[in-house]
Amino acid sequence: MPLTPKTRQVIVNLIRISVSVALLGWIVARAGLNQLLRTARTADIRPYLLALLITVVGLVLRAYRWQILLNAVGARVPFRRLVYLYFVGSFFNAFLPTGFGGDVVRVLEIGEGATSQQAAGTVFVDRLAGFVALFVLALCALPFSADLLPPALIWLIAPLAVAVVAGSVLLFEGRLLRGMTAHFPGALSLAGDAWLGRTYGVITACGNRGLLGALGVSLLYNLSLIWSNVLIAQALQLNVSPWIFFLFVPIAAATLLVPISISGLGVREGMYVTLFGQLGLTAAQSVSLSLATYSLDLVTGLLGGGVYLVAGLVGLRPKADKVSG
Fold it and tell me: Residue 231, SS3?
């Protein structure tokens, strides 16, 4: 008897949870639980609280970036609505077995002022603009930090950053990808009039002004993200050059694209052990740095979940608009 889509999704999620638990358990065992607890007990809470505040402000910045893109395609959604959706999205990103559950919620609950294609297209560009800005910062920082890293890592980071930026330019340009998919079935063609084609039309309709505005806000947001990582290292009393975070944070962010665990748990910690181990940090220090950074998203996710719960209990949660355009 074939499995239903819902059953398959449950199985996939259970596998992701198992992978997260297995990876995290193995990494913690390797690092040593006592060492991790010792690092946590000696941490300075003040830089951590400042990093948490920066993370909360970062959600507001990202909501503003999304508004720039929505305005660019002719959608008009109140800013407070977008801030609400970003906080709620942070909850689903933190607690669902994927790093993108919050994006789906933002599309489904966009409400009045935008079609589903406008919501989906701008959410995609919103995400991509953040990655592009992060890797642009990595390329800019590379000359100042190349002597701090082994050559093998330089050859990993530089081509990856160039590929992300070049691929994004190709995507936003539009004509080449439309031409390549013109003969695909209608539902799969980026040049067609089906949902995918209309959504891609929104992506390319953001225009230079919208894209540049989103990239500008992304640069500001990603600088705040790197600053929060530096503060986490200071809280844990780790001697790591701030320039390193310009290079390692993009790689850590890319691990969220690997859909094999919950919010990258286990995968990200393994990446931190590999990367920061090149700088002389112990496994315990690297895992502590990764988990402390993840805890910022966890706390803001809990805050977003509280907002979502209260909005539902008191009847303030806006209903999703079903307009599909």
Answer: helix
